[in-house]
């Protein structure tokens, strides 16, 4: 077992997500930063869809009741093991009785903790990911709480050395240096005048505080509005879809996004761009440019 001493701000069980159920109205969910999930599991030489803990902004304190091996990737929450600093992006042997503590994010927004053998919660529709809004998956369909006992695989590491990877450090942004994200044209891209598209692509947007796993709300001085005045029936949406509501301030749908929407879809983020955006904090800045998959 893994005992939760402090739960952190928002710590949930996530994997690659709940695919092939959008037509049933079930969101994909899964790790917001899929690249960090991939490498956390690769460091432990296990399937890359193995369930991990996703920690947001402030990480948890965890006590191990069993030996295992872990890897920590994504944002830097200054992890310590029994009070001693440990590195990101490497495998770490853990003994029964050890305590892992993560603090506030010094870079990025989300950190991932993988365990050798994974987190042993039930699969629902082919995934162990938590959908907090619907209240299912993960550990009892919710974020971790103090006192929770999380089942993990016991594993005695006999690794002679540690496995490490080199990853680019996560960017921070400002008005002068926003993070630039590639998009492709959305289904309603042509509803917007050419001048509006030019303005959209040269505008710097700030991520607002009411952004979450379902969607990132952006704000700027620019209010986008489609030139084509046409009622849009509810249509399919996927993570990465950029919707333009009547306010003219874009919403970028993220991993827990609903399956249909009624706002014009001006663009769609690439998969890599979704990963990048998932590490952008509220108050930081982004811009968009036309790219390719």
TrEMBL record:
Statement: the UniProt record of this protein carries the keyword Nuclease: no
Stored SMART domains: AHS2 (SM00797)
Protein biosynthesis in keyword set: no
Pfam families reported for this sequence: CT_A_B
Annotated signal peptide: none
Keywords, alphabetical: ATP-binding, Hydrolase, Nucleotide-binding
Domain Carboxyltransferase: 23-293
PANTHER family per record: 5-OXOPROLINASE SUBUNIT C
Name of this protein: Biotin-dependent carboxyltransferase family protein
